[in-house]
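Cross-posting from the modeling subforum.

Setting up a comparison between two proteins and wanted a second pair of eyes on the formatting. Protein 1 (sequence, then structure tokens):
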Amino acid sequence: MRLYSNRDDEGLKKVIRKLYNFIQSFPDPIKWLYDKAAMYDNNMSQSIWFKEIFLSVHKENILKHHGEFWDKLIKEMIGIVKKVYPDTDTSVPPVCIPECEQYWGKMWEYICICADSVKALKSAESFDEVGSAYDTYIAKTKLGTAVRAYKKAESPIEEWQYYSNKYNSMREDLLSSTSYLPNGTAEQFNKYVHSEELKQTIDDIVWITVLFSELYENAKAKKNVKTFSDIEHLAYRLFSENENIRNEYSLKYNEILIDEYQDTNGLQDSIFTLISRDNKNMFMVGDLKQSIYRFRGGDPTIFKKKYSLDSDEIEIIHLSQNFRSRMQVIDSINDVFRFNMSQDVGDVDYNDTAALQREESRECYINTAENARNDYKSEFYCIGKSKDSKESSSDYLEAVTVANRIKELVDNHFKVYDGNGKYRDLKYSDIVVLMRSTKVNGELLQEILESNNIPSFLQKEEYFEKREIKLMLTLISLINNHIQDIPLVSVMRSPIGNFTENELSKIRLENRASSFYNAVKYYKSSSDDLTKEEQKLSKKCKSFLKDLDRWRGYVKMKSISALIWTLYEETGFYDFMGALEGGDEAQANLKLLYERARKYEESGFKGIFNFIRYIERIEKRNEDLSGAQLINENHNVVRIMTIHKSKGLEFPVVFIMRTTKNMLASKPTEEHRIQLHKDLGIGIDYINYENLYLKKLMFTKYIKRQNQSETLSEELRLLYVAMTRAKEKLIIVSSDKYKDENEFNQKIQEAVYNAKTMPKYIIASNAKKYSDWLIPSIGISLNHWNFIPRFLAKTTVSDVIKEKQETIKVKNIDEMREKVQKLLEFHYERPQSGNIPTKTSVTAIKEMAEEELTRKSDIEYEPIYMMQKPDFMRTEKLGTQIGTAHHQLMAFFNIEKIKTLTENNYADFVTSELVRVTNDGQIDSNVVSDKNIADMICKNVTSFWKSDMGKEVLSAKKVYRESPFEISIPAYEYDNTLPDEYRNEQIILQGIIDLYFEDKNGDIILVDYKTDKCTSKAEQLAVAKKYEKQLILYARAMEKILKKSVKDKYLYLFSPQSVVKLD
């Protein structure tokens, strides 16, 4: 038996990598492998799989739901029959009661068979008995769906429908559950599952994984690399293998406090246990209902087991009171999870202890006349669209619904509680829109919100902050200029250089005066009497410099993209990153860097120096590969985020979208041929390459079923996390496709009817999407929900996302090939125009003027050597925040109030304004929490208002602050090195003018504030020169918009508290 074909080993590599990554969350990964391999046997009918899983765990699970259900159902249905036929003889077996068959029809026989099958399974203790029970009652009996027309029943249609619904749902569950039981004789079973081949294959996989683990650990040791899980395993081994150290730490900590305990994995819990005092000084805080990190190793069963311990082993403190949400929100959440969450789905019995509650005496929301008109009842929008309608997607309809509801809430002055019995109007920043993933539709929602003039913020991950990209760009920078200490040390310390910290320290101590490059180059070069360790390090230095010289030589021979790929291959960095956790994503990022370099060169640019400067400019402008982020979450914006990122946060108004997306859908990959589970171990398919067929074995299917069940539980907990973020208003939007409005209404009615008739766990465990939980539970609890169904037969797509699509009409296949070939071979005749932005900012043009990117096709400029400061020595970030604080205070300053004060009172008033503007959320409180910074800002702003310029502003006819604008400019003003054919392309220029005013004579005066540090007159003139072009563009924009000339342009410099007039 082989897992993969002879063509290559790629599939096997992926399987081993998946298994290796999976076992890292266990205290002893290798022991886990051997233990799980032992579950397989050459005689699978006597294996651990049969004895401890199928005959024990799985059988008990079937009996848990079916053991008493069928007998109770039979008793209940017989009771109904006896009321109609009082003389019914119930002393005979139920299947032999003619009145029951007459009243209930064929369904009665099926129900009796189900009851008998469960009894037979309950008494089965051996392989043969289990096989016999399955063959007799399941395999050889056609347990059909209850159909009234099959044999006419005398029971009223409503009554028959009620019980047939129960039967059909539990029948499906019984058939599904028993399908995992082995059947036939032991000999037939072993032959079917290929016991000996199966056992050998599992042993081989474990052997390869153990070997890979050893080799990989050695490779990481040579490269001085440790993953986070490596550090955890080292800590575990340190404590488990050294009693003295374990006891030392056990005595050191009087208490061990663990937060978010529900997301702990087995390895972490083992470390906590080792250093505890027999678990008696561990204080664990967690909420099992919020365990949502199973995908990265979190194991909620650890918390669950602790929770179920006897009271003499553990003390449980229930923190049952909720102080976040209004009772309207609490009640609506409880309705959903009382119906859906249980030990079977969600791992929690959502009873009175687990439910959200708040005692009336602890009510934290005080209702007043201000909020009397508010409706805080939770809302569920259930939107249907025609399957035939292709005009707009479900995601588009949900986005439009969200946008419209936000506008209604804001426009109607929805009130939110601001504490101390006060209410205020809802702001955009009070609102969050949550979805399972924002990758696909986050930007669509953002577009719809912006088209409705609703500001929003969608967090995008920064590409250049990825570890693999930062290191590769550092290496490229080092190749361009090797006299850079920080990049050199970074590369040497990385897996590329393999130097340890001790080795780097020895190199520096040997030569402290020169650059680090020279220290490496001349390490022990003049010494003959070297120790073995020194000889080894000297050889290592020479080898590294030899590699670096070779890579520098490639610069003259290779394109940038070819150089990057050569570096991937020669350093092994690409393959190395692929082996780490998240390796697929890391390799995709590295490919993207290669593609970026290739496209850069295709645009006519050349040279490694130019490429580095190009990347620096992208980073500097915060454009990244995902585009610029002009606003952030600190502004007054609607936030769009994933449910995972919202954990721990709270918002007055919460929207939840995309509740009809399949939770369990996943694309089949080669890794899916192996199924892994912490308790059930390893499951594989049987593949016969000689006869070309694949067999899904019950072990693999059972593990997959268990994984899906646990994923389903986590998804329900994830929905709980999403809904409990709401403080005052919860709104869920759901949309799906239906044949027509009748089907839409019928499906809703059917879901609500099932909720009233079927066992709750059946509905919850068969959910494929969030709406499968929401519609039935909300549909039967309308006291706490506004259920708003809408069917849209026809919809109109907004111009925001509408795209014209042209189809290629062909007469024959040859014509189609020709047209496709032309499309594939198309080359844009003006490739450089792709580097001219359609829109830019004044700041970007100012930066281009400062450091112009040289574009020479034939000449390579000698690199500029400089010593770069590390990030921790740079202050640009804080400086930018301080500058922003100055601007925000000036923008929101109460000018009318200061006009009424004397200069002696200016300082106190400026201080109070700083507090007010900060409290309003316009200034980052973290910045001004530093008293020195706050005092500096107040001093600078006070000096402005006391200056001649400030007095002119206060006496002006009209004052305008933070005025945005957009005008068009020719492309050469953006980049004066563009070829002639591009110079007159039009670019939209946008910016924000700090302040302009109309003086007593009606003239326009332009003022721009700057916080650049400059003390001498020469430094001030240099700053003025730096911003000259920026103010010229500001003036031109104002003149174009106001149809009036600008008389004077000034820079106000806060640092020296001086004014510079620009010509």
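Protein 2 (same layout):
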Amino acid sequence: MANLYVWVDDRNRERVSRTVGDLARRHPQFRDFLSGGDSIEGVLNLLFPHGMPMEYHGANLSIENRPDDNLNLALRPVINPEQPWPFPRGCSLAVRGFWPTRVPSPVFMVQDLFEVADAPGHSYERSLSVVVYQDNPQLPRIQRNNNALTRELAFELPPISITTREKLVDWTEFLKWKRKLVSEKTRGLRFIQREWQEDRIVFRVIGESEQSLREVHRSLSRQDVMAFDLNVSVDPWTFRISDREGAKRAPRGFELGQPEAMAKIAPHKDKIKDCEWNEPHLAEVVVALSEDDQNQLTVAEDLANIRQMILSRIPEQGFLSVSAAGDLALIRRHEMAIKRLQDQGGYAPYLSSYLFDARQAKKPSAKESITHWFRDDLNPFQKDAVEKILTAPDLCLIQGPPGTGKTTVIAEAIMQLARRGERVLLASQAHTAVDNALERLGKHPDLRVIRLARDLDKVSGDGKSFVQQAALSRYYSSLAEHASDRFLKPWRETADRMSQLQSWLNRAEYVRRDIVEAQRGIDLYEQGRVRAKLERDLAWQRLQEQAQKHEDAKRKRNRLSTLREFLVTGEEDVADGCPLPEPLSSELASSLFGLTAARTKLPVSKADWDAVPQQRPQMLAGLVRCWRKLRTREQELEKDVARLCAVGPRSLQSPDVAIRIAELEAEEKALAERVDDDDSLVSAWRAKRQEIKQLRNSSAGGLSADLYSDLFVDADRWCAAIDNAEQVGAELADRLAALRTSNAAIDQALERLIAEVHRLIDLCEVPEIDESEWRQREQELEQHIRTEPRVNQSLTSSLARASELLLAQAAENSVNDKPVDVAALLSQEIVARQGEVRTLAEQIQNQKDEQYVWGQLIQDWVNDLRRPASAQSDWEHFKEVYVPQCNVVAITCNEREQTLEDSGQVSFDVAIIDEVSKATPLEMLLPLMRARRSILVGDHRQLPPLFQEGADAQTFSDVVEEAEQDEQESRTALTRLNLLRFEKMVTASLFKSHFEAADDAIRARLEVQFRMHPQIMTMVNHFYERRLTCGLEFPNYDRNHGLVLVDADGKSIVKPALDGGGNRIPKNISLPSSEIPRAEKEKVVHEGDHVLWVDTSRNLEGQIHKEDMDAAGKPARSNRLEAQLIAHTLLQLDKQSALLGFSPQKRRQVGVVSFYARQCRLIREAIRTVKPSGRFECLDVEVNTVIRYQGKEKPIILVSLVRNDGIDTRSQGMARRRSSRANVARYEFINVAFSRAQELLIVFGARSMYESYEVTLPHMDREGSTTRTVYKDILDQLDRDARLIPASRLMRNDNPGQRKFTPRPSNGNRGNQR
């Protein structure tokens, strides 16, 4: 192992001692380590322990490549985590010194120390394993041999500082150029008086001559100025500041708007004290207020008091100028940062290696998986971004398009980093972005957050709670909440729970007993009801039996009467089931069956009578009817006997045949008498004779078939031809005699039966029905039932109290719609709660000793932490201790390094830079050089780096082109040549080039947005290759504005969301969207309109319109027509919002965005024409420039694009290139303006101005760009969707109740129309 010989360079001993003192002040552990001894000796013993083996990372910091002569060397020790180290984890020290390579066995001479991150070796470093010897020249000389510092090592070490210096040449030249620009604008108007004039302030200014006044005024025109005190300038009359002085402390001034034209210029005749000008001139200049103060005046209740407060903040005498002192100080800081970067200073080892090329940044070996998230609503893109932030070794880049939650990602990453014990530096180019990110941080005892700024007045409202004692108060609040949640709250909740349970159990036991008693009463009632009902039913049964007997007797008597009537007269029918007296009925039947001896035809037989006794009534009736019919035919039989006897033994002819023979014989006789005279009659005579013969030879006739077939079974015997009538007559006479014999027997049997029926009828009595018993039992049952409500009420009341108890315990079944056994459920709940009481009692007993010792102490501590005065008083005593211990520090990128150093905040594990796209590479150096690794968060498709941060924010290219048009290029450094030279430094952020070149392992893009309705997102997506998706589950409900806007004719131009029936979906403004039932959100069928573009190419009369022009005939960056339309639209929005429930107590948030302060002022004036107070009843309107709106969002956004050159490209066929003075033509500005809207976006702009512009968009995932007509695509789609209307449709000049808008006279026209 080689040897390393070390000592401190005597020429730099004082510097080393000062650095050690600074380190000791910032790090208490290091201070304790050095206590009681020489500080330099203590550092040497720490870093270079004499005679001990050590390992170092060495790097060549020489700025000249002379390895054979002299070499500047940096050494940082490899820290053993098991050995004590008096610095925070991850923090190390690097030693810078020189090494005379020409000396055979050199000593490393220490010249300075600086903090760096404890990181693995870099490619620019070499590992040295050596034994260290301190070569003190005051002691006997050490024999130096086996020296580790060899010539071979000197030539092997890469000259990183030389490489860095070569890369920083352009940066250094850029700072020189910027210093020249600052010196050009460092001019000011000396004012001797200021006063109010309406809502603007008039300054009385003085100058050496009229020409000098005009030159200075022209240099300040179109810029926001500030009012400075006299002591800012080194000269009391001519504004001049020292850059050296400014670097130490940038002067403060009062922010104002743009100065307007000078008036009342006249020489001042009187001698002014201490003024060296021979003939000074006076003039008046009107200066508008800043946008923030304008908004404050608009919403002020006590206007006079606010005016007085604003005036008191402006010096009575001073200078009106652009704030250049801060620019000079910033340039000096950037120059120092470049020098430190070149010397490889800073906490990030060799930041320069990847600062210029993201491809050189190390990639993580493995992606860290997070098991616990502080926010459970992160989407996969956000989680992926956080995981990459935690694992990136050097650099990580996160692109966050509008509404995708990049601030949420930053907050989650900070929480995760703090939990891992890492220190975070949060920075951004603007104060609002820093404070917005801080506002998302939750309270946690691991987070000690401090917001640092030299000028704390610039910290926005969101950041105020992280400043000075407010930060300590917030930390105290998080400690109090944590201590309360961890100790006091569980103890209190346990005791409260025990008390609640015991109280509940006592009440539940009473209720349970009441339920038992009520149930017993119901059981007794039910038993009595059952008994009474049984007795009533038995009485009813007996009553039914009586009624049945009554009916049976009545029916029997009726049937017997019917039987008697039938037997006597034969007129009635015998009913089914009619009782037949026996044996008389059978005797009659037997007599009737005796008719069969005479071969009589009967309906039934004796066998039928015996076989089917239940049908005997019908059979008897049939026999009797048959018999009676036979009796009625006896005379006809007697006549047939007489007829047969009269015929004798001859055949019986039928009467019709006999008649026919007689007729034929008469005819034959007549023919016979005539045949002798007429031979022709012979054949006829013969035919007659033949016919007579045939009739006589035909069969003899028989008796009537109708009669005998109905009476006798042998009807054929009587109905066939009778050859011997006498014989048949004798037979018929015998049969008739037999019938008469049977008739006598039948008559006797019938008489007996009729007599018996008479007797039975007389014996048949019908009993009466007695209902008294049944009615008595029915009344008794009704009286018993009347007691049921009273009995049930007791149980119902008890069950209701039981349900209340169950609901109080949040038992599942108690709130279920299904019927449940409340009593059983209460009993189960009582058993469960008794078990919980036993568990809590055991828990309380176990906590008793701990709570006795610590309870009151922790409670007192929490109470003390929560007292407002605690943080305020403790801040004065502990701020020197607390601030250095904060693990999250927030600053702006341009903050002084001294601010961090004075606060003891020098080094960090991670630097997170938000809105990085707005920052130039130089502006990011401060946070980058303070942390071991860096996280860049931004979106290079939003606002780029700006030339100035005023209300009329401009890019460098815009300012250069403006100077060209104003023909000032010869008098300014803002030339096209310089712009091209420093293009990478001023027109695009470092983020863009790094994101395009970085490996996927260290970059992430958020692509799910939760801000905009999909219609608005579709417009913005033109700038993002349609990558953005909407993460809202119900965007049509969550982003439903509920408005109906109409045109001048009353036709709808903006509609709200509708349900399936075409009804408006009501907008619930009293509840957050998360609390609206899902079923309500699913009712939306038609999404409504969320985008409207009002085309201002032509005015309200349909004539071609042009933006306002100033006195010199140049565009004034205002548009009276658009201001008038916006005021009209706001008035309609106000009326509609009132219908939706908004009020002065609950106002609707509306943002009006433009790109120019002048247009914002014009819009406010237009608002006052429709609302003289400048306030709406139901709207909270913020009118501001786009630079003030980045990072904000509003439900409704109105955008005024302003610019319109009056060229109608559609009708005139003229081509147009991008206006050199139109910020609106930069897609980044328009992207920001459009993407602020959540529910409704209304754009006021000239279609003819924008649709011909070509926009150059960089690719999302690779280098290069594409050029296309983005605005034409947007406008064409809106036109197809009927969301593009002309200005004349929205409003007419003769609109009733609408006052004509005439803006206040200024230094230009009110607008030009042709």
